Amino acid sequence: MIRGIFNFSLPVEKKHLYYIAAGLILVGIFYFWHWGDAPIISPDVSEYMHVAQDLRDLDFDELSIRIPGYPIILLLTGHSQEPPGRFFYFLQLFATLGAVFVLIYLLYELSAPLYLIYAFALIAVMPVFIGSAGWAITEVFAQIFLIFGLAGLILWLWNGTIVWLIIYAILIPYCGLIRPSLVLLPAGIIMILSLYRWLFPAFREIRGRLITAITAIAISTLIIIGGMLVHNYVKFDYPGLSTRLIYNLPNKTLRVLEKLPDEYSEIREVLVKHRDRKLTERHGLHDGYDYIFGAYKELKAKTGLSDRELSSLLIRLNIYLIKTNLISYLEEFYAAAAEFWIPHGQGGYGNNYPRILLAAAGAGQVVIFALFFLCVGFAAVLAFLPNRARANLSGESFLATDMRLLSLILSVISILYHWITTSAVALPHARYRAAVDILILFVVILGIDSFARFRRAIAQPETK
């Protein structure tokens, strides 16, 4: 690599990749020194550490509320007993910077102009985007794996390098074991790739690679996700990845608990009691969220039901409340959906910066989010244009145009899918956006490039 930096026979654009890589290393060193108390440990890390200890001891006698993707990472990095420390932060920070570089390389392969590549690199390493690497949270590794996986798919289709196929086939399904909101993403990717005859006709040139990509992710998903489902069903008679859903859904129905049928009056009274206690809890947030943790223990003792039976009953009751009180559920959904896009602090270090910088960073995020939704609309328009019209307008080959469109569509769908599923089930929290923050910026940069190409082609029509 050092030899390559000083090899001035390289193409001009290629040299810039080395310059950017060196810059990212320097940025990583700076943040490692500057954020001396990182990583900040989130409250749920202790639960993941407990699962990591069970994995280390091969103790699978109890169905956990946490899925094993993040605990496996904790176990492999030596943090099954001790909370993540500076070494973990070092790995997480430089893995995030590696994900940034992979997207930069993808922009380079898609012939994005240098000014946009540098703009992406500069914005992506700002605290509002890279700051989440200072937290020990699942979203950080979910983002890293998601970026490497999506980039691996595009680069496999583009140049046929087998390493990218392996990265894509393993990491995309594994994201579902880190963040449950991404568990169905492989199915979405398979569906999009299967529609290539209509969406990406130029992919007929690489039909073999396309079929290989579909087959690879189908097999790996069956092994990684399917294997986990089979294990839980055989071992615990539970058809799911974890029992977390029974702790999430009650947060969407806490305002309508009184509307449970009288036949469940005993259960209803327990749920209402714990919800009201949570609402009036001193020094609490007075929102009632997570009341189910206390209620579940009391219900289990009162009803004598097994975990599987009680979980199934609570899920059934919550689905009933959602169906019969849809407006209330939608209000919770919209609150979570809006919270997802609220600009948040710089990875826990926002209070250390002047307020004028924080205000500017927040305003910048709002602009980027607005541009993202414009790019979503632009990608939808491109998807419905005939292939020949797309190529003529962009001034590129059919294959290059379709590859750029695929990159846009896969990134957009991954972001929107994560947003919707998170809003539908989880608590309102901007933290969840950390799993797709850098990918949102990538969509904006790639969308600006695609729009600029179309605008130039329209302004200067092809001469015959």
Describe this structure in words.
- The protein folds into 2 domains: 2-239 and 345-459, no CATH class; 245-324, no CATH class.
- The protein has 22 helices and 2 strands.
- The chain has helices spanning 2-5, 12-34, 45-56, 69-76, 86-109, 114-124, 127-130, 138-159, 162-178, 185-194, 196-199, 207-236, 245-248, 250-253, 265-279, 292-303, 307-324, 326-340, 355-384, 387-394, 398-425, 437-459; strands at 40-41, 135-136.
- A two-stranded parallel sheet has the order 1-2.
- Helix 9 packs parallel to helix 12 (207-236) and helix 19 packs across helix 21 (398-425).
- The protein starts with a helix and ends in a 5-residue tail after the last helix.
- Mean pLDDT is 87; it is low at 1-12 and 346-351.
Give a quick set of tags describing it:
464 residues; mainly alpha; 2 domains; two-stranded parallel ribbon; 70% helix; disordered N terminus
Q: Secondary-structure map with pairings?
A:
Blueprint: H1 2-5, H2 12-34, E1 40-41, H3 45-56, H4 69-76, H5 86-109, H6 114-124, H7 127-130, E2 135-136, H8 138-159, H9 162-178, H10 185-194, H11 196-199, H12 207-236, H13 245-248, H14 250-253, H15 265-279, H16 292-303, H17 307-324, H18 326-340, H19 355-384, H20 387-394, H21 398-425, H22 437-459
Helix pairs in contact: 2-5, 3-4, 5-6, 5-8, 6-22, 8-9, 8-21, 9-12, 10-12, 10-21, 15-16, 17-18, 18-21, 19-21, 19-22, 20-21, 20-22, 21-22
Sheet of most strands: 2 strands, parallel
With strands numbered from the N-terminus, the spatial order across the biggest sheet is 1-2
Mean pLDDT: 87
- Helix coverage percent: over 70%
Give the uncertain stretches in residue-range form: 1-12, 346-351
Q: From the alpha-carbon coordinates, what is the Rg to the nearest angstrom?
A: 24 Å
Instruction: Write down the overall geometry.
Output: globular
Strand percentage lies at under 5%
* Separation, N- and C-terminal Cα atoms: 45 Å
Q: Indicate the structural class.
A: mainly alpha
The number of helices is: 22
SS elements, strand count: 2
Number of structurally distinct domains: 2
H-E string? HHEHHHHHEHHHHHHHHHHHHHHH
